[in-house]
Design goal:
36% helix; elongated; 58 residues; mainly alpha; 0% strand
Length: 58
């Protein structure tokens, strides 16, 4: 079984997360690793229509 290493990138707006992800992808791909990105959960939920401002309390 192949080991999977996970790297978590956090930070506020304009903190350089996208730049860091690009750098990591380039560096690890050059070294022969397969690089996968998992979208942020909040972005996925909001994109799917689940957001606090869409909730109604009955």
């Amino acid at each position: 079984m192949q080991e999977i290493t996970k790297i978590v990138i956090t930070g506020g707006p304009c903190a350089g997360k996208t730049t860091a992800m690009s750098w990591l992808q380039n560096e690890f791909t050059e070294k022969g690793y397969a690089v996968l990105f998992v979208p942020e959960t909040a972005t996925e939920l909001i994109g799917g229509g689940v957001a606090p401002w869409t909730w109604t309390i009955n």
